[in-house]
Amino acid sequence: MAKTALITGSARGIGAAIALRLAKDGYNIALNDVNEGMFENNDIEERIKALGVECEKFICDVSKYDQCEAMVKAVKERFGSIDCLVNNAGITRDGLAARMPEEQYDLVIAVNQKSVFNLMKLAGSVMMRQKSGKIISLASVAGLYGNPGQINYSASKAAIIGMTKTMAKELGSRGITVNAVAPGFISTPMTDKLTEEQKNRMLEQIAMKRYGTVDEIAGVVSFLASDDASYVTGQVIEISGGLMM
Ligand code: NAI
Known about the structure:
This protein is α/β, with parallel strands linked by helices.
């Protein structure tokens, strides 16, 4: 039976690239995003089906535990198993800590970090019963090294690294691997919001002197989701063109 991958926040950007890549690898795909509007004027579902695998959209705000519970149940019912979970959904609400309203901090923690608890727990339970599975989460270089203006975002991404190592230890004996990738500066709608000055400052620090592409993230996720990575767990792979060494 074909394996199934659930990718959160997969209507666009890195998540959509990961969904397409895992479909090419032969996974059936459970797409997710926060509302139906994210899939308007968007042919991701058709492009995945054209690759000969099954695909369905599951609308859910991943920061909400009850919605995640319903989504995991629905994905399991539709496809029969959840073999790979990619925690990709994420937002930024940048600002210096001294001026950041409390709600702005809490929102980023809820969407980027609480969501990972929700789905590591819920999809992790399905995988425990299966005695197999791969969990891959999107951290960030901001979580490894910090970034001014991103106290909320860097906290959420650093937390994902701790959660990845904890769950690797909790789930390892059940045949489940848990890893994270930490992208650097990747061209997507999220980073399009940065000013030219911010973008140029980043470029100066990158050894490869260019931004990454969504496919360069998807390639590493594909490896972690494959049998080639069957003995890799609890790891954080930086994909940043040599931002820090
Ligand atoms: P994006 O903004 O293009 O895509 C994020 C997707 O997540 C969107 O489709 C959005 O609707 C969805 N989403 C947001 N809140 C959600 C919620 N509550 N429930 C379900 N879906 C939700 O962002 P991008 O650049 O593709 O980023 C993907 C991941 O990669 C994020 O976790 C981000 O933090 C991480 N990342 C991105 C980097 C970059 O340079 N673009 C660098 C490092 C990490």
